[in-house]
Amino acid sequence: MTKIKILSGLNSIGGNFVRIEDNDRVIVFDQGIRFDIMAKYYSSYITPKSVTELRKLEILPKLEWYDNVDRIYISHMHLDHLGALSNIPPETELFLPNLLLYNTMEKRWQTSQTWLSLIPQKYHLKIGEIQPYKVDENDVLAIPVSHSAWPAYAFLYFGKDETILYTGDFRDESFLSEDEFFKINRGADLLNYLEENKDVRIDTLIIEGTNIGSSKPPITPNDTVKLLRRLFISHRSIIAILHSLDLEYAYTLIRLAEEFDPRCYVISDQIAKLLKNIIANVSEFIELSNIELSNIDNNDIDNSLILIPYRDVFELLRNSNFNVSNTPNLTAILAESEPGKEEGSEYSIISNWFLKYGIQYYKIRSSGHYYPYALKYILQKIRAKNIIPIHCENLKLLINQIKIYRYKK
Questions:
Q1: Cβ density class 133-171: b for 16+ within 10 Å, e for less
Q2: Where in the chain is the domain with CATH 3.40.50.10710?
Q3: Could you say which DSSP state residue 116 is in?
């Protein structure tokens, strides 16, 4: 008999650890960091001592959770799902969404002077790359989803007596058109895939509910594009701060740069690699430029769009060549795409720095997670017999919503 064990992340945003036991087979979906617990015990002055300490505080998964695991599948590389690879027992088989991107991220973590140095593997793991739309030897099928990290996957497990769908984190509306999503991911997203494959019957759905109970306004990708277009019309120079895995949003900014014709700079190897993947599959419309932060002056910034990750924006502002008074009509756009707890993002601190340097900034939020009003539509598309809610701070509310919507036509 198939057993589903939600060992972490049931009543919290992040830290998912889903263990599926099916006779002699054991697989795990995600093994993330519990940032909600981490914020209770650590600050800029108090930092983690070791992986063992994080494990004792239940910020990282317990070692016994990995017993007899055949393979761990990571839905996307936000740290609340990827977790610390150094916590995984030696020789464990781990499959990641994209090895090239992971290797780029790992190099940064290895040289970090913070707790991030605990993330990379400390010994040998058997690491592979997820291949979408193919049922693997463990009867797992990965299906791409739209999220604020790329690539991101939902997982279908075809068990001996039960078919299980784990959504990971996802939204029902993308920055990409259906054709663009198909070209970039080489196939349809989760909901369209299930629509095209009606013979796939879901016995148990494990679904996230990040935005359930949130009071923040539901701004869709289409709404975000309208706001961005107004800012591009009004400002000659724009600094866009974003997560270094948010390919869909970065792609949207590049397309707007094409439309309004500023120069475009990408100050991140990670973002550049993501965008080159899109450009190779969609259009050769722009040449990306990587420039060193120390070399930027106001001639570079005037009439330009600069894409920069959260972690690097402080270095840009501290650059002695960077003089705001010599750059007329400059604005900054801070993408607040996720709850701060999810990755420990410090949006308010970044905002304070912009005010300090006299830069007008705007926060734009287009969540990587579906909004509550979309739940009815999603449940009707998936048509699951049983539903397990996860990744949600307002679990009772999500359970009540599921009871209401799953029976409505």
A1: eeeeebebbbbbbbbbbbbbbbbbbebeebbbbbbbbbb
A2: 221-364
A3: G
CA-to-CA dists, residue 257 to 20, 279, 386, angstroms: 45, 14, 45
Return d(Cα 199, Cα 291) in angstroms, integer: 50
Average pLDDT value over all residues in the chain: 87
Rounded to 5°, angle at Cα 61 from 388 and 105: 100
Q: Write down the residue that tokens 């910020």 correspond to.
A: 59
Contact criterion met (CB below 8 Å) for 59 and 95 = no
pTM for the model stands at: 0.92
The CATH H-level (homologous superfamily) assignment of domain 2-214+370-405 is Ribonuclease Z/Hydroxyacylglutathione hydrolase-like (3.60.15.10)
199-249 pLDDT, tens digit each: 999 999 999 999 999 888 899 999 999 999 999 988 878 889 998 899 999
Residue with tokens 């002077």: 113
Q: What is the strand order of the sheet 153-158 is part of?
A: 140-144, 153-158, 163-166, 204-208, 386-390
Q: What is the CATH number of domain 221-364?
A: 3.40.50.10710
**Bridge partners for 190 per DSSP:** none
Percent of residues in the chain assigned helix, strand, coil, to nearest 5: 35, 20, 45
Residue ranges, CATH 3.60.15.10, the chain: 2-214+370-405
* Residue carrying structure tokens 């973002």: 271
